[in-house]
Specification:
PH-domain like, three-stranded antiparallel β-sheet, 7 strands
Amino acid sequence: MATPVQPRWPVKLPFTLQQNEQVLLLARRHWAFLTWKLIKEAVLALVPIAILLTIAALTFGLDGRGGQVVALICLAWFLVFAVRSYFLWYRYNNDLWVVTDQRIVDSSRRHWFHHAMASADLDDVEDIKVHKEGLFPTLFNFGDVRLQTAGEQPNFILSGVPRPNDALALIDRQRDAAKRRLRGVPD
């Protein structure tokens, strides 16, 4: 039997645990996943601003009405990417995968007015696969754990989770234990 996990950060689960259910794994995307996306957002926000300011300074200068218009355009562009970056951070902090000794729960929030949650019993898990591809996932040891289930949601993807091989091993052990309990075979 796996030991319950004590998270390194305060987590309020978006669901109620069943009687005698214990959380064994709390997974979020790896920090490098968010960092890479935020770097791309910063580049997409700042490079066009720098180009526009350079062109404006060279053609008509940044003084007067033209400079004010360019400044407003740059500010609006920057604010759009600041909001996009906030929601990337929000989603990163609110996407959560929980593995208990009874089930797997996938909970995600894209924004304040959205919440999607799916759950599958461990004994419904049929296949488990780890997918790691690319330089950063290999260097920082993160990837996807893909589960095929016999339940309502046929596929669960724990996307960009740290140490995916460890997550696969834990889910595999717990799935086997759940199937033994279902058949009445003691652990």
